Amino acid sequence: MVNISKKYLDKKIQTDAWNTFLSEVKNSDSQEVFISNLKKYFTQSEIIMLEKRLSIKILIKQKLSYKAIGDILDVSPVTISFVKHNFIKAAPVHKQLTPYEREFRKRSPRYKGKHRL
Questions:
Q1: How many other β-carbons are positioned within 10 Å of the β-carbon of residue 82?
Q2: Largest CB tally within 10 Å, which of 27, 28, 37, 65?
Q3: DSSP state of 105
Q4: Residue 47 CA from chain centroid, whole number
């Protein structure tokens, strides 16, 4: 499992990072060049993880069961479910609050358990 810091990147740095990565991908003339470009940014374990996650989508389209996919790729059912649901789910639709609901939420703090006296 990869350990990742919870600190978020500045938006400009994040955009520049994705643009740099995208230009590397676009400049890949072949699969070999693409893989060598990936190796500039990812460890071998991260590349294997990426390949397995991409393969999950292919095997799901072939209507294989979670067990069969897990046996082929040596991944957990949770990983298969995560990939499957992220490819098929629609973008979330967030409910718009009415002015009354917004005001009520400002005045009413969330309940955090028993109040002790």
A1: 14
A2: 37
A3: H
A4: 15
85: tokens are: 């649901």
Distance CA 31, CA 53 (A): 18
Q: Does residue 77 carry a pLDDT above 90?
A: yes
Q: Give domain limits for the chain.
A: 10-41, 43-90
In angstroms, the Cα distances linking 82 to 58, 71, 76, 77 are 14, 17, 10, 8
Give the global pTM. Answer: 0.62
More confident residue, 100 or 49: 49
What is the residue-wise DSSP string for 41-91? HS-HHHHHHHHHHHHHHHHHHTT--HHHHHHHH---HHHHHHHHHHHHPPP
- Give the whole-angstrom CA distance, residue 63 versus residue 49: 21
Which residue has 């996650």 as its token pair?
A: 53
Q: Which long-range contacts (CB under 8 A, 24 or more apart) does 68-73 make?
A: none
